[in-house]
Amino acid sequence: MDRFEELRSFVAVIDAGSFVRGADSLRISKAAISRNVSELESRLGTRLINRTTRRQSLTDEGLQFYERSKEVLASLEAAESELTTRSREVGGRLRINAPMTFGILHLAPVWTAFRAANPKVLLDITLSDRVVDLIEEGYDLAVRITRLADSTLISKKFAETRMVLCASPDYLKKHGAPEHPGKLAQHATVSYSYWSTRDQWHFDGPTGPVVAHTRPFMHSNSGETCRAAALAHQAIVLQPTFLISDDLRAGRLVELMPQYRSMQLGIYAVYPTRRHLQPRVRAMVEFLSNHFRVPQWHV
After folding, report:
1. Which of the four CATH numbers 3.40.50.2300, 1.20.58.220, 1.10.10.10, 1.10.10.60 does domain 3-88 have?
2. What is the pLDDT of residues 66-79, one digit of tens each?
């Protein structure tokens, strides 16, 4: 038997003045409330209520126990009320992991704007291109840019980005522009280390999928480093529009072989579970969706 149910039954009988009215107040049967009180007395090894056919009264021990029981139940009710209120309030610590470059370029303004709208949230932001284990490492939410694989995690896509093959006009003037992905092995390239396909770059062309085998002179886990090599006229790179869209618009970089399209990647908010989702996590997911409703990097 639940000890709190025993206490609630005992207090209800005293407050209502009888077992019948106490049972009615708890919406249980008289037999159930009598059993609860009897089991309480049996567990304590003492009589709490003197019962006769006409009336009932508390024993000395019962009176003392009644007063303490009221305090315990009141404390429990207060604790539950406080927790319920807090569970509905957008507040508390929110641990987020996000990719380095995207985090610096596009998420940094989000944190301050979100904080202004939700001043009771304490943000704890970690930027890393490593795929973290949310549950193992204690993150509430992660931002991931990927073709999301099947996962036990819950995700919501809030934006997209396209991978673009590009180089600077000066590089192309000096080395020429490849006309087919198969020619990329003859060019200087810089590759992003975390691509699962590494030095094989995938495209969808006019006649179907094409795999280009490249020979990078440098690998880097930083998209900014890859971009810098292209802007320095040193290489052809394959980088996302969220990083290079301004360069493409300004003519500092030129898209190559647009008829061969590379990957379209989703940008997701990922979190461990949908059940009992904390209001601060839900608020951040909604904020990201609204903030990036019309991304600025589409070209």
Report:
1. 1.10.10.10
2. 888 888 887 877 77
